[in-house]
Amino acid sequence: MPLLDRALAAGHAPTIASLIERGARHNDCVSSFPSLTPVCLSAIATGRHPDGSFIPGLTWYRRGERRFVEYGSSFQATLVEGAHIAINDAILNLNHLHLSQSERTLFEVVEDAGLIAASINYFVFRGRVRHSLKHRPVGALARRIGVFDAAYGPSRFFFGELFASDRTGGPPNLGVHAANDDQAAAIGRWLVARDGFDFLLYYLPDVDAAQHRVGPDGALAAVTVADRAIAQLIEAGGGIDPFLERHAVVLVADHGQTAAVEACDVRPALDDLRLFAGSLRSDPATSQVAVATSNRFGMLYRLSGAPTARDLAGRLGVIDGVDLAAYIDDDDIVVECGGGEVRVCPGGALRDRRGNRWTVTGDLEALELERDGDVLRSGRYPNALERIACLLACVNAGEVVFSAAPGVEFVDGGGSHHVGGGSHGSLAADDSLVPLITVGLDPRLPDEPSITDVYGLVRHHFGL
Ligand SMILES: [Zn+2]
Ligand 1 center to residue 422 CA distance, Å? Predict the structure, then answer.
């Protein structure tokens, strides 16, 4: 049973239960692909999968710079290109260089309309207001060592110990020891008590961190902490009914999580090729393939003299830990899964549960696609076609993308994994299905909602 349902059944989430009672819980809401935090937070903030946000993963190869970008798969992975550049990538570059300039974030949309937006600890925060680092000595040090000393966010902008637009008296938070949700609660309380925003993006990451540590089965206590952090906003607003008279609520997770029981390194299966191992250790001009893996997702980038995407996907297909691989062949999307092959092309007589139209040929069973009249659905891989197509169309994605088998996690660029704990990133349902609860909104959602739909809900609510 999904974590939230277990928490609700055990009475660990009384605040969320009271929101469900007063609003609506929508079934089958699906994450983006890969179901990894930077991709999913970008999907919520811009309403776009990677084709629109340009963010294809937690780690990826940046063709223009011929190096890996690493947003923090693990401490070891951040050392592949150097800790210095990884710090800039995860905070500044993600928002100001990598995230598409053609899309406006919710913060930009809301504030362009003259309303006030607030963000607490949310990684995709791009807005219109320049904020210097919160602690002056840190700013001086940042300038000396050449990392960012400012960023553009919404006018009310809080991010760990790095940025704070206001003095709230919240506890310190260096992003460790489950301090995020407590700090967020203190800041959120302060904002609600002052009626300090029109739109607030309130991000509680400690449930994810707890699941990585102990696996999804052991993380009930973290849900209790998150529930309490939501309760504190509501209390600051005078209790649930007065709070809901003033505010509408969307409660959504960015992705699910599954137990990681086995690590898989795909590199040995490619070791007859010259693999790019980071710009400090190898020359992209003579490397054939760059492997970007993190959690339960990976991408291969074809560099110089690489085998075809089909050949590379075939090599991945024989690795036990790889569940499926996808690539573009002759304008068709090809998905290889369990020995079968599906070819997908946008447009055509079939449609998915979100209304997208497709032409699908080959072995539909491979993706467990079922046909009901002209409607396609897959229980095992929710919203599979839209998600795969939107990833392969991303300018920064690898030519081959692949997803891990049940219980498997790919070893990242620094050799790390979460075996014994939890992981996510794959196309499969456990990593991909998320709770979506709305209160005080008029949600016109497709049969299979997506986290990208939150963007439209917010815009519609404010009449933007
Ligand atoms: Zn995570």
Answer: 8
> 3-class SS at 370?
strand
Q: What is the pLDDT of residues 305-347, one digit of tens each?
A: 999 999 999 999 999 999 999 999 999 999 999 999 999 999 9
Q: What is the β-pairing status of strands 262-264 and 408-410?
A: parallel
Give Cβ neighbours of residue 197 (< 8 Å, ≥ 6 apart): 116, 117, 118, 156, 191
Dihedrals phi, psi of 230, to nearest 5 degrees: -70, -40
C-alpha of residue 121 to centroid of ligand 1, in Å: 15
Q: Which one-letter DSSP state was computed for residue 216? A: G
Tell how far CA 320 is from the center of its chain.
Answer: 25
Contacts 24+ apart (CB under 8 A), 229-232: 229/181, 229/182, 229/184, 229/185, 229/188, 229/204, 230/15, 230/16, 230/19, 230/202, 230/204, 231/14, 231/15, 232/185, 232/186, 232/188, 232/189
Q: What is the pTM of this model?
A: 0.97
HSE value, Cβ hemisphere, 13 Å, CA-based, for 208? 22
Q: Could you read off the pLDDT of 131-161 as tens digits, one per residue?
A: 999 988 888 888 888 888 999 999 999 999 9
C-alpha of residue 266 to centroid of ligand 1, in Å: 21
d(CA 444, CA 336): 34
Centre of ligand 1 from the C-alpha of residue 57, in Å: 12
Amino acid at 142: A
**Taking the domains of the chain in order of start, what are their residue ranges?**
3-257+431-462, 262-423
357 CA from centroid of ligand 1 (Å): 32
Q: How confident is the model at residue 84 (pLDDT cuts 50, 70, 90)?
A: confident
Which CATH architecture fits 3-257+431-462? 3-Layer(aba) Sandwich (3.40)
Contact 60, 68 (CB under 8 A): yes
Cα separation of 388 and 338, whole Å?
17
Under DSSP, the state recorded for 141 is: H
Q: What is the pLDDT of residues 373-401, one digit of tens each?
A: 999 999 999 999 999 999 999 999 999 99
8 Å CB contact between 258 and 424: yes
Q: What is the pLDDT of residue 299?
A: 98
Residues measured by CB to lie within 5 Å of ligand 1, the ion? 208
- Could you tell me the distance, in angstroms and rounded to a whole number, from the CA of residue 108 to the centre of ligand 1? 26
